[in-house]
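The methods section describes the discrete structure representation at length, but only in general terms. Since the whole study asks how a given chain folds, the encoding of that fold should be made plain. An entry of this sort, consisting of the sequence and the corresponding backbone structure tokens, reads as follows:

. . .
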Amino acid sequence: MRKPFRSCLDEIVKRLGAGWDSIEHRHKGLLDREFLKSGFHITAYPEIVKGAAVSLLRQLHGE
């Protein structure tokens, strides 16, 4: 599951970067656009992020 998780996050980061100006979300202020441009890599993901990613992967892969 590690590869799909990383590639899923990579895709999310690309979409966030591309649509940054039009995105409205209550947690947007927690992200830094420059950080997205440099590549999204953190070593410890918050539980809410892990849960959202797993949920998205299950939807995408029908699990």
